[in-house]
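chain below, 414 aa
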Amino acid sequence: MKILVLNAGSSSQKSCLYDIEPPLSEQPPDPLWEAHIDWLVHEHSVQLSEQISARIEIQTSSGKQQTETRASSSRKETLSYLLSRLYKGDTQVISGLGDIDAVGHRVVHGGQDYQASVIVNAEVKATIHRLSAIAPSHNPANLEGIELMEQLLGDVPQVAVFDTAFHSHMPQVAAIYPGPYEWLAQGIRRYGFHGISHQYCARKAAEILKRSPESLRLIICHLGNGGSLSAVNAGRCIDTTMGFTPLDGLMMGTRSGAVDPGILTYLMRQGKSADELDILLNKHSGLAGISGVSHDMREISQAAEQNNERAALAMDLYIHRLKACFGSMLMSLGGVDAVVFTAGIGEHSPWVRAETCKGMAFLGLALNAQKNESNPVDEDIAAAESRVRVLVIKTQEDWAIAQSAWHCLSNKNP
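prediction:
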């Protein structure tokens, strides 16, 4: 079964084509074809549909590569072009789009409606659209991908794999906000996100440590342009840092994370509209907002090394907020057996890992500095004497989406 995976994020689009034969392996195979789009944001752009260009990278299992920057008026136009590279040019791996048997989509917000992956139909699309009000940076892009695949592939089955599903069984005490109780009936509660990544890493951590998932208390740090932590006990999420929307919790690339809600009412009384606040908090805050340099930790780090005080402040603030949220997850678990770092920053920033772990020395956690600096992948980087293991795991969201789509279409439980 050839499964195409579309994984749309807030600032990028990842795509993979897998050729899956039963029995399904737990180990991620190399995809036949994979591609990555970075949306190049104009300085004053408000909506992703206004992007002026996109950087495209494609690679096949045979080693063929293509890299280009392409002018574009919309995500849909760029994605259509990208998918044509599946069957045209040097990166061709199939004879045509008709070779694709199914499509799996990462969908960020499933609300209370979906606690597992589902085959897409009109009702599912309507729900994804309705929940776009809660996840405006993600769900519209996810829905665009679904609708484009309908145009290109006709009746080929599509599966929605929800980022909220892994967190959907959190205990009420972790899910309910301390506002009016009526909020719960309105669907205003904590949902959590990055669940596909958190679930994959929980399973992979058990494999690396050669322990059963039921025996582990994990704190998983998904740190990328967006970021969240989860507290996982016996394979189930019991707490997480993101909430009603992906804006809550950690300081992120362009998102503020948790702020005093009184700031928002203050700014509204100063004349700011809800739309202006949404853009301010989602697009012009976080690392980008504090540093004035970039949302990219690598660029901020370079600026800090050149004595840019705002860049240095952004890095320090990022770690401070990360440690504070980490403490919350630790208290929910009542202890921790292993800490997992994953996603762009988590996998590739030794500095972030080292600084975060310094705050956990009281737990008996100690890093192996050499391992931490050696680009670890799916590896335990804790010192031998550490009482808490520290893992760096390459998140395999795309493979997890393909697995979930296969299970869903095969009427099997993952």
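The two ends are 17 Å apart (CA to CA). DSSP finds 15 helices and 14 strands in the chain.
thats it, cya
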